[in-house]
Structures
1.
Amino acid sequence: MTTAASGALAATRALESLAREDRGRLLSALIARLRDFSLAEEALQDAMISAVSHWGRAGVPSAPLNWLLTVAYRKAIDRLRQSRSQARLASDLVPLLGEEADEEGSEMIPDHRLRLIFTCCHPAIEQKSQIALTLRTLGGLSTVEIARAFLDQEATMGQRLSRAKAKIAAARIPYAVPEPPEWPERLNAVLAVVYLIFNAGYSAGPVAGRDFAEEAIWLGRLLDRLRPSDAEIEGFCALMLLTHARRAARTDQNGVTIPLARQDRQLWDHTMIAEGLALVERALSRRQPGPYQIKAAIAACHCEGETSDWPQIVALYTTLLQHEPTAIVRLNRAVALAEVGELELGASELALLADALSDYQPFHAAQAELFARQGRTSEAMGAYARAIALAQTSADAGLLAQRRDALDV
Amino acid sequence: MKYMLLIYNDPAREPAFGTPEFQAMMEGYFALNGRMTADGVLRGGEGLKGVETATSLRIKAGKVETMDGPFAETKEHLGGYYVIEVADLDAALTYAALIPSAAFGTIEVRPLMDYNPAG
């Protein structure tokens, strides 16, 4: 191999070994300076390309991140020079050049990823675009990978990302971490986005080598590091961990869903469960209860001991209703009531939700289950049929069919 | 940056003139006008007469066509607007949330075009 080729190879390896952490950090720092998402992305891309040839010839620098940031910054200036008038250029560059000089020579690049995630998940951006922007800028996923997860064409997803970035610039969506009065609501928007990413992975499994559940856990842990000691973020991470820890036990060899009570607990990831349980405890000890912490505590009740702690689960759903008075929480509480022996009460609570949840598969599955226990077999058959028709995955449809077939007609 | 806050509401849902609710709404507007002026962000704003007074026109094949009524027949009408100058969208949204009509209508927040970007 020639020296040039081995140098280029070493440079490429060094770039690949930069954790994706680093890409997000570099991007967040560039956006903070340039105030322009698209320009920052293009400049970082330019810098990466330069690195392959420069590092190949001169070796990998001692502070590669700083090198990339400085070069990306110069590339951005080049791009501005090409596209803007001299007058505008002077006013743009003077403050920027001053900042650049301050950071020369150190590897301490600023981390603005918390600002970045709050901008990506700003409520003025459509939720699907929030998800895509978060995966692109913080997760470092390619447009192709994101498009696959959404079953979209690459071009369509590319346009969606461009439109979102254009709106951030044109409407001047701030690049900032929200202040206390807005904080809880804005944090909820961020957590909702990460949770949707988690659910995409939960129902689809890995798509073309990317497990979105793991992407979401990675994002959750990142939030916890960027904003330590926040009880809701801790509870949120715990909820994902306690759910994800059961993934190996969730379906049988035919791909049919196995309900929690019948799962082989040997297959659960006990290290992950221990981490999740410790996180729930830490979160609850802060005495700032919130919906994700309560949901994590419910997940914990399913994971600790030999069987689920249903009386405690009923109590937790009752508390959750105060935070989230939704039909879905009522449904879960009704099911838990039936589990503690309050079958009639659970069934009557469930009946009240028939209109609100008429298109929601788990409602019909729960109703079928309770009808079956009450000996109302023909009603149970009807409810199973409705649930199977509404099932989103063949795994769930399989389980529902098994249950229907087990009915004593 | 300048933003226009467009106030859309359904007249059927607006408090009727002379009721305590109408009084409260007007006081809300006076308080907001005072606050925007004190904060130095208010650049303009007007209330519009009802859509029954609206006339629309367009030019088709070089001929002016004039029609009775608003641009679009919807339940919620454009009833007025503010123009404010603030740092960013979050600041604009904070003022938009103080508009009394937001309680029964919709406020659309739009950045104004900057015709002199090199300025």
2.
Amino acid sequence: MKMKKSKVLLAGLATAALALTGCSSNGGGEGDGEGTGEGGDISIALVSKGFQHQFWQSVKQGAEEEAEAQGVSITFDGPAAETQVDSQLQMLQTAIDNRPDAIGYAALDPKACIPLFEQAKAADIPVVQFDAACESDYGNYLAATDGVAAGAVAAEHMAEAIGGEGKVGIVGHSQINSTGVERRDGFVEYLEENFPDIEIVDIQYGDGDHLKSADIAKAMLSAHPDLAGLYGTNEGSAIGIVNAANELGLEQGKVAIVGFDSGSAQIEAIKNGDMLGAVTQDPKSIGKITVQSALALINGEEVEEFTDTGSFWYDAENIDSEEIQAMIYE
Amino acid sequence: MSEAKTAAPKGSLNWKSWIQQGLAVGTLVLLFIFFSIMNPNFMQWSNISGILLATAGIGIMALGTTFVIATGGIDLSIGTGSTLAAVMTGVFAVNMGLPAWLGVLLGIASGALMGFINGFNVAFLRIPPFIATLAMMMVAQGLGLVLSGVAPIYFTEISWFSGIALGELIPGLPNGVLIMFVLAILAWVVLSRTKFGRIDLAIGSNEEATRLSGISTKRWTVLIYSVAGVFTAIAGIVMASRLSSAQPQMGVGLELQAIAAVIIGGTSLMGGRASIIGTVIGALIMSVLINGLRIMGVQSEWQFVASGVVIAIAVWFDSLRNRGSST
């Protein structure tokens, strides 16, 4: 009785397996017939730092648009939080195991990725990088915003708004990953070099979390009632500062608030004057150039080692311009 | 027989929890004095009200969790669960365009449903609370992302929504804080003056005996987790109100802060002993500590270390007292 049952099961499994392989070979055949010469079989696996923030959704959009235009297929994956270095590495591992034609990677941690890059090299998979680089010798092609330059842009406008003197605080989003570090250092270095009368009184990190950043900003404003400006190094940090000012009932302009990236809350704050302005990157270009570079590598063409996708200041005056509108996202 | 059972732990509960609360209050007062000396700006009302508002979300979550921990259980799903409830509120009130008050009620109902499932899994399917609620924590995080379309849902169209946390029925006191205190009073009455509270603690001190005395402990457990789910949802809505939006990535990690607040407040992880006042004070200790360190300009890294040390000391006191009473 028992034997019979297991035999039936086996037979069933075998039929299922046959059916499946039949299907897939069929599908493969069709693909071969159509795809030759068009590059329709080229696949690029993008492993991003995340997908929850609008910024990454824009990168994804830019990459998808370019992929469609070029007739290649892409996958876009990323961990749930930008602290999950571990799960991001697993995604990269999976991508390598899938043997795509190229991989695009945005390193959450510049060192942890090195062994996996060696694997990709051994497997002969070309790698391009976006947003933040891995410190490996392989795949040295990066499309990203120059974070130090972007931080300096924020500092320049902050200094102008507060008249070149006073106390300034920074609400950072990370003291570990390169964007957080560069945007902070670019800001700090610019002020130290050009405006000795501006004192940076405090730098704290809110992980880009809106509530945590708001609480940090409130504490800074309480500790330094004469604070002239606050700088938030990403969307969540910036919105946190704006919320803090609103919750404390500060009058507009008492503290100059400079932010980073966009998102509808930040756009709204800039339009209604709660916020002085912000530095935006060009996330769609990051996605687009990543796909372009990957394709170039696949085709054996030359690729620049670093492409600065640019950082741009926007405020109430130029926010509606076409140039800015193409870069910011709701 | 059942009377004697409930009477005995209650009597010993009182002086025990008084000591723990005394310790907790003492810690809170010490922290206040210390930070005021370090930076006089600490004592300004705007900062105090900032501390209270920062406490509201975690505090409300912690109140609900107190009931769960009192049974000897745990609820890890409160952090991401609060996010899911906020997202659900957004889905109903914004995406589906239902009346906003109904959206808020349905958001709270979804919290109750999460709690119900937790309770059911714990009581009837016999999944250990740690695992059952860990699973819910992941499910809630995933569903929150899916339902929100991985983007914030903004409540800016609903004019009164931000008033839930930020309005001031009592001038100078944000409503979110008021909600926390009202819920705390409610929870205190329920825990110390009602059948629900008695059974809650009885399950925690001896579930088997409670069941043998003719109480359907399984059903009560489901009810207790459901009530905790309601608190979780309210916490999520209060936090969403502060942001005028449901942020799908908010809430991760808050569960541990809320649980720490409960334990600092003198509720026993083993169950059978709970204190609502303690929970509120525990939550306040956590946020006073963080705020004070921020005001002093202590590096973020050291703030984590300091919070960890405070939790360890608080629970160490707790275990010392347990050892003392058993000998």
3.
Amino acid sequence: MKLIITIVTCFLFVAITYSQGKYLTKSGAISFYSKATMEDISADNNQVLSIIDTDNSKMAISILMKSFLFEKALMQEHFNENYVESDKYPKATFKGEILNFDTVNDMVSKKQVKGFLTIHGVSKEITIDANMTKKENSILVTGDFMISLEDFNVKIPAVVAKNIAKKIKVTFNLNHQFYKK
Amino acid sequence: MKVKKIILVILILGIVGAIIGYKTYNKPHLNIVATKADFNVSANKIIEDFSTDETTANSKYLEKIIAIKGIISDIKIEKEKGIITLKTNDDFASILCHLSEEATNKMSDLKVGESITIKGICTGYLMDVILVKSEF
């Protein structure tokens, strides 16, 4: 009897530890949307690098500003050259912790991620609501949040103030896969 | 008579201005297929450049059209867009080429292990060097 319990416990332990570790995606999607009087602008980035470490519930996201693709070439040019100055600040990052990560399971649940978002050289502490689902070999994180351009020192000239919203909606869809070395 | 002339000139300037404005606003994206690559490099060389000095590599390669020669280590489709991975000497770093729609359509001929040259716009280096709007 003892032996059986030991064996079962061992198996359980293996089953639990199996999926512990790092989950990663190199092709996560982040897009943003600006709704203003004159025009609506959106851009998509499908090369988002995101890592979740289940051992300490930490999450790290890294994105290239130049990977945001716009419908119009001119918008993309203005975005890179004038607004986010992507030559000077080529990356945006987020480093944070998933709160109550141990309760994430195979059903979609709302969790909070708290950490520092760095865009345009400015770091700001934020808490983001995200929907999380953890399957055997994957963790899906989706959701959206608003950011204010002012917070990240992105200046919009008065001439185009009617074309660009002061608050931008950011949408994310990150499907992390278990990362085996 | 003079007033009429002035009005006419203003009108013409206005129309020209409007056309230029419209053209600038609708400026097309760079045509990757028709444009010659700014750099021709091997997968190993570009990874080496980025991993040794990212800042210098950024100013050299970013937003440029790069043709990268390498060996395919992975082929996949995500959200209807093809992604080809080229392997390098570094086990953890590769070249991630996100294909254009046209290139995705003719991707079925490619095989893992094949040597290929892929041309695309370099957007930078995360764990891997990333090319977007890639063609082959």
4.
Amino acid sequence: MKNLIIITLLFAATSVQAVDLDSLYKDDVSSIEKLCDAMLQAFSGKASEQKDWTRFENLFLTLSQQINVAGGDEPYVNVESMAAFMEEEKPWYDKTDFSEWAIKYTIREFGNMASVIQTFGYEYNTPSDDDAAIGAGFTAFQLIYLEERWWIVSLIWEGETEKNKIAEQYMK
Amino acid sequence: MKKLLIILGFAVFAVGCGENTTESNDDQKSEEKVEEAKAPWKIEDDTKTIESTCLAMLEAFSTPKGEKPDWARLNNLCSDSAIFNSVYADGGGEMHQYTLAEYEEEEGSWYDANDVLEEQLGITIDRFHNVANVFQAFKLTYDDHKGEAGTDQGVLFYQMAFVGDRWFITNLMWQSETGDSKVAEFVN
């Protein structure tokens, strides 16, 4: 009986949290552009401000991956689950003035799926490391509409470099 | 007559030699191209371009009843962490996620029991440097020779990365046509 109560309470607590998240971030997941904007907004902010990692997490399916192609002309791929990404990157974002914004969206929808190209700009300053930069990048998202909301299934991105510029069609 | 032909043949050969060497180099190159075209298919060819990688995906699944899809070829197209996401429109929507090995385990027997032909109807590519996002319209024809046969059309979304000297599929997601979503606008 005790076990049953614990399980019931645990289920109730989980449900309450789910309901809270759904209502708190309802607007984020109501459209494709809002979903992709919310990802950028969630970890934008001053170093002194707490970044909203709960909001960030709420955008993704549990098995979502983020894939970064880095290395310029000697490319390598870094694949991480969202949980691993947050664990690894949170300390850096939390000590950094960080701002990221969408430049242009190219969206294709089919059935419950959407394929999105988002070009973005970013600016950061990490005073403790004396490190700052400004730049742009290209992200491709795969999204799905389930349970009356949009989810990020997967994303792959690469930053622009002096040598490799993003084509104008994705920027204007 | 035979002698005349030999003389004419020699004359043509001599004129050819007298001209600049570019033409003979061009001839050699075109012969090499013919040889290349005749060369047997190699698994490395699959991943040379975005288009060849996506076509290889469909080809590897296209086999007659009793034959397995070419799982080794499929494995070569994908990164180790690639996820296959199968989307259904049923109810509010449904999605099944697999690794390639899980997909083989779950769905392999269906391919073995059917003539399967997967064809590309159209492809749209967005690319920046080493990253690509692909939208491929496909047609599936199947027949189990026991009364279950048909066709299906849909769209595959690919995310891809160019690493080393080849393309990899890093994520794949697909859905069949529904009453509201038709592939027609993506056929090219």
